[in-house]
Amino acid sequence: MEKVLGRQGSVVVGDQRRPKTKIVCTLGPQSRSVDMLERLLKAGMSVARFNFSHGTHAYHQETLNNLRTAMNNTGILCAVMLDTKGPEIRTGFLKDGKPVQLKQGQEILISTDYGLKGDENMICMSYKKLAEDVKPGSVILCSDGTISLRVLACDKENGLVHCRCENSAVWVENQEGVMNFDEILMNSDAFMVARGDLGMEIPIEKIFLAQKLMIHKANLQGKPVVTATQMLESMIKSPRPTRAEATDVANAVLDGTDCVMLSGETAAGAYPELAVQTMARICKEAEDFINYGDLFKRIMENASMPMSPLESLASSAVKTANSVKAAFILVLTRRGNTAKLLSKYRPSMPILSVVVPEIKTDFFQWLCSDETPARHSLIYRGLVPVLSSGSAGASHSESTEETIEQALQYAKEKGFCKPGDSIVVLHKIDIASVIKIQFV
Question: Which residues form the Pyruvate kinase C-terminal domain (predicted)?
Answer without folding.
Answer: 311-430
